[in-house]
Design a protein that fits this description.
Layout (H helix, E strand, L loop, with lengths): L1 H8 L21 E2 L2 E2 L57 H5 L14 H8 L7 E5 L3 H6 L2 E9 L2 E6 L2 H9 L5 H23 L6 H26 L1 H7 L5 H4 L4 H18 L4 E6 L1 H4 L2 H10 L2
Parallel strand pairs: 1-6, 2-6, 3-6
Antiparallel strand pairs: 4-5
Helix pairs in contact: 1-3, 5-10, 6-7, 8-10
Length: 299
Amino acid sequence: MLQGLAAAAVATPLLPSFAQSVSDKDKPRRVIFFLQNNGFHTNTCIPIGMKKNASLSGAKLPQSIKPLEPYLDKINIINGLHGLHTSPTHSAYYGALGGYPGGEHRAPSAETIDYTLSNLLPQTILPHLRIGMGDLSSMESQPTVAALSASGPGKPLYMHCNPNHLYQTLFGSIADGKVKRRYEAKSRIFREVESIAAKGKSELRESDLERYGSYVNGFSKINDLRSKLSAYSETLKKFKPEHSEKYLSPQYETDWHDALLDIGIAALKSVRVSVRAPHLTSAAFLKLHAFLLYFLLTR
C-alpha cells in the first residue's frame, strides 16, 4: 500500500541526480518527515482565527511557527490528518510512518513511507538520513536508536542520536585531528569485519543465512557510503559544519540538538539527501523552523 501511495507522490521525479546541474527552474526537491513524540495541540499550527479553507496571504501564525510568516506564499498547511488507528496511546512508533498499529516493544510489521520514498526517488549518495533527538543522557548512552523507520517486516532502521558519530560518518574523510584519525581507524575495522564476515557464510545453516546476510550487507553499505563520501570531498568541504565545543562538551541537550540540526542542514546542501526523518523531543520541536526555513529558501 505504501509503495502505491509513494509512487503516486513521486510520479514526476522530485530529486535530480547529485551530479546533475540544477537550474533555478528545476531545483532539487526533498522530503522531510518531522515526528514529535509528545504530540502537539492543533492550535499551534493553524493560523490565528482561521476556521475554514483559505489563502494564507496575510495570515497571522501562532508563536510556535511565527518565523515562517515571511514565507507564507510557499507554504500549504494541511489540517485534520490523524493516526488514531495506529495507536490509542502515547506513541505509535513504527506505525506513525507505516500507517499500521504500532507501540512500544512492537516490531515493525511493514516498511515505513520514508524508506519507501527513499527508494522511489532518483538515487543519491545518501538517500535516507534518520536523526533522533532526546535528553542528553539518552543520546550519550544510545548513539543509535530504532523506533520509527523500517525497511520491511521485522527490519528496523536506526536513527543517529550522537552528533559526534554522525559527523564522523558524513564528514570524517575531510576532517582533521582526532575526528580524522578515528574515522580512518573505524574505516579499517569496518572493511576487515566485512571481509571476515563474508567468509563465514559457508559455515551457516540455511535457516540462518538470511539473518546473517543482513549483517554482512550492513557492513557493505557502511563501507560503500564511506567510499562515496570520500570521492565527494570537494563538495563536502564547502558545507562541513564546524566541529565545536557543543559536540565535545555539551552543557545541555539542546547543544546536541543544534549540532544534529547543523549536520542535517549540511547534508541537505551537500550530499543531496532525498528523504530525511528526524524524531524530535519537545525542546527540539521548537527548533523545527530552522529546517523549514532552509527547505523553503532552497525550493
